[in-house]
Amino acid sequence: MTVPHRITVLGAGQAAAHADLIDGAALVLGARRHLDAAGVPPERAVVLGPLAPALDALTAGSGPAVVLASGDPGFFGIVRALAERFGPDALDVRPGVSSVAEAFARLGLPWDDAVVVSAHGRDPRTALNVCRAHRKVAVLTAPGAGPAEIGAALSAFPGLRRRLVVATDLGADSERVEEVTPEQAAGRDWPGVHVVLSLGPGADHPGPMRAVAGGTDVAEGDWGLPEDAFAHRDSMVTKAEVRALALARLGPRRGELVWDVGAGSGSVAVECARLGAAVVAVEKTADGVERVRANAEAHGVDVAAVHGEAPAALAQLPDPDAVFVGGGGAGLAGVVAVCAERARRTVVVTLAALDRIPAVRAALLAAGFTAEGVQLQSSRLAPLPGGVVRLAATNPVFVLWGNRLDPSSGDIQ
Fold first, then answer.
1. Model confidence band, residue 91 (pLDDT cutoffs 50, 70, 90)
2. Which has the least CB within 10 A, 197, 283, 333, 386?
3. Degrees (nearest 5) of the Cα angle 392, 239, 267?
4. Tens digit of pLDDT for each residue in 250-272?
5. What is the pTM for the complete model shown?
6. CATH 3.40.50.300 fits 227-403, yes or no
7. Check: CATH 3.30.950.10 for 100-199?
8. CATH of region 7-97
9. d(CA 35, CA 105)
């Protein structure tokens, strides 16, 4: 679809410099505050609320149009919708400074190492999980995913150290920049337009400048790390070969939440966090919880470690996208059933006892998941005297996994 006249998109601070374009436009689209500030008469103004009617007005217009936007309109902004509707060639974009850049500038901090996430028109869980997983995050807020909701989500996440900077109405006379704890943010009403910076330990001291922007590097080097990359007790750690397959089936990614149930050393939890996911590790022993925390700290990631036994310890946790269940025990199938009931996407289970496989498969199938599996029995090269090697077998392990099926179609979600 095309429009007969070019659409000029003006970012923050550009309206005054291009008053002639606004005066000559047949239609001017923008938020009420932008239209009022530019003095656009009502007969030429289209207030941006729901996007579809505004785009329809542009289509029906018979003269040049101007869109007044916030910040840089090509950065989580209206340029995407305009380009999809009318094509990039119809647009003349004159960007302003993004609100994220403005917010970090108020603190005197660089933001090439920050993760930026928008909650506009999207599931707020993604923004919340990014804040849980990363130590330098900027959130473009939306109703239902504002400072209060972000604060509540972070304060409920066990052991997480975060502070929030709420930047309100940046560039306006009503601008405010406030630093609060997550608990303080959760207990307040926040009128206005916000950018929330979620900052963890070390966020004020960025490392060396990197060639690629866009957040903390994750999974530098290998994944499926060797067992000696983690502190563990009596070799109670998921073996590297098993962990590599488990990670491949879990598919941990930025913006998602993973549970590691029966975490032991927390090796799976730490690797999921290195790949960008938010992670909760549930471990029934007190020394195991401390070991998980120490391993997370050693690898520079955040993992919420919960001391408790599944399934009871899972009741107060936010719903996960994917779950890893390690270990075994007589109650394994019941734990898997609870995890499958809560998981949005995937459950992966490792176990050594052949007898428990049918019950675990049945629990996955009953919850509407697929049920697949494999036995892994690897042999590693080990040195022998004389400079030769032999094969040293590791214990066989069963890896079962399931993906949630769409009940309407039977396809994997």
1. very high
2. 386
3. 155
4. 999 999 999 999 999 999 999 99
5. 0.85
6. no
7. yes
8. 3.40.1010.10
9. 26
